[in-house]
Design a protein that fits this description.
This protein has 117 residues and is mainly beta. Strands 2, 4, 5, 6, 9, 10 and 11 form a seven-stranded mixed β-sheet that branches. The protein has a four-stranded antiparallel β-sheet with strand order 1-3-8-7, with no helix packed on it. A hairpin with a 4-residue loop joins strand 7 and strand 8. The mean pLDDT is 96.
């Protein structure tokens, strides 16, 4: 069974940090491009960052220089280190896996990040 399980979401003060994790199972993790998306209340889901199976990364302008995506193929896990958090980073964060050959995508259930004083 293919499954993505996010964790690490929490309530944090502005300027704080969090690390999100996404553990994958049932997929050949090393051939997938892994990504993070987020959806704030009343807004559409937006792309945050991705990391390819060759460790190339890319970030949305809104998080560049604050967020870092990484992956551990031995643990089938992708991470999102979030620093200097802002209230506008508040959202449900979703993990995404895209098969680089078939382009089929899988989603996790999301984890809530709230940035507030």
């Amino acid at each position: 069974q293919r499954q993505l399980v996010e964790s690490g979401g929490d309530l944090v003060q502005p300027g704080g940090s969090l690390r999100l994790s996404c553990a994958a199972s049932g997929i050949a993790f090393s051939i997938y491009t892994m990504g993070w998306y987020r959806q704030a209340p009343g807004k559409q889901r937006e792309w945050v960052a991705f990391i390819t199976n060759s460790d190339d990364t890319n970030y949305a302008n809104s998080v560049k220089d604050r967020f870092t995506i990484s992956r551990d193929n031995a643990k089938n896990t992708v991470y999102l280190q979030m620093n200097s958090l802002k209230p506008e980073d508040t959202a449900v964060y979703y993990c995404n896996a895209e098969n680089t050959i078939t382009r089929r995508k899988y989603w996790g259930q999301g984890t809530q990040v709230t940035v507030s004083s």
